[in-house]
Amino acid sequence: METCMDADRLYQQDPKLKKSDVEMLAMWSKQQRHFPRVEEVQIALALHACFYSVEQAKSCLDNYLTIRGMCPQLFANGNPDKDPALKMAMSVNGFAILPDKTKEGYTVLLTRLIDPNPDRYNPQVGSKVFDMLVLRHIHLVGPGNGLVVIIDMKGGVFGHLTKINLGELKKFLIYLQTAMPIRLMAVHFINVVPFMDKIMAAIRPFISKDMFLKLIIHANNDNLFKYIPKEMLPEEYGGRAQSVDLLFEKCKQLIYDSLTFFEFQDTMITDESKRIGPRKNADSLFGFDGSFRKLAVD
């Protein structure tokens, strides 16, 4: 796939990643009649995300292709010019991949509201922008040793919380934990909103204990600096990186420059009619029929 890095670069970046294991997985993927053609770099990223477990990588790949096919509203059509909701989300939710990695080799993604108006906020489409940007980054330059996310909640109000659709939230969190080919190492919350307890209550039923322990809530930014060096951060946070506005624009431009990649991603879905054994559906994947509407709040 011309829009991705060469898999050999991944092997160079990570000596623990064995080409022989990737070849074994490639052979297995060709035997899955319900799979599209999966590229070597995609298999290598899944194996890396699963800390080199071949069996876990099989599950990751199957979940990735299946969930993306089952949930086009969350993952398909990554062209902002053809999707007004996506274009709006990119002007409401700012995402920036910081230029430097942590000493552990982790990539850091910072997100915060650009437009605090809750009427324009759509968390489901915002999660789509997150997915698009992270996937593009890891396919373009590699995954590093893992991903750390900083969520700056400045500007958040109670009206944002009421926009959460529980059904879509559950689907995305299951995808994040079982299918997305990344090592999510930590999620840091800063400038926390007063209703953080309600947000955690919404998230908690849909994540594993291990994932829950990766969520770190900070009372002040100085506590964040114990995990993320201050100098890595944008100038608004006292760091040496460019301003968040410039970094947001770079990430937005990356999406516009990568439309061919997102078109390719739309083909990366299973054909359930060809699956050997029981076909998968929303009940088998998510444990419910997707009938939840919105988060009920007091």
Descriptive report:
By secondary structure, the chain is α/β, with parallel strands linked by helices. The chain contains 15 helices and five strands. A five-stranded mixed beta sheet has the order 1-2-3-4-5. The longest helix is centred in the middle third of the chain and has 19 residues, at 123-141. The protein starts with 6 loop residues before the first helix and ends in a 12-residue tail after the last helix. Residues 289-298 have low confidence and may be disordered.
| Spatial strand order of the main sheet | 1-2-3-4-5
Percent of sequence in beta strands: 5-15%
**Could you give the distance between the termini?**
49 Å
What percent of the residues sit in helical stretches (DSSP H or I)? Answer: 40-55%
**Count the helices. How many?**
15
On the 0 to 100 scale, the average pLDDT is: 93
Global outline: globular
Query: How does the helix and strand content classify structurally?
Result: alpha/beta
Topology:
Blueprint: H1 7-13, H2 19-30, H3 40-49, H4 54-70, H5 72-75, H6 84-92, E1 93-97, E2 106-113, H7 123-141, E3 146-152, H8 158-161, H9 166-178, E4 184-190, H10 196-203, H11 209-212, E5 215-217, H12 221-224, H13 244-256, H14 259-266, H15 282-286
Parallel strand pairs: 2-3, 3-4, 4-5
Antiparallel strand pairs: 1-2
Helix pairs in contact: 2-3, 3-4, 6-7
Question: Could you provide a short overview of the structure?
Answer:
With 298 residues, the chain is an alpha/beta fold. The chain has helices spanning 7-13, 19-30, 40-49, 54-70, 72-75, 84-92, 123-141, 158-161, 166-178, 196-203, 209-212, 221-224, 244-256, 259-266, 282-286; strands at residues 93-97, 106-113, 146-152, 184-190, 215-217.
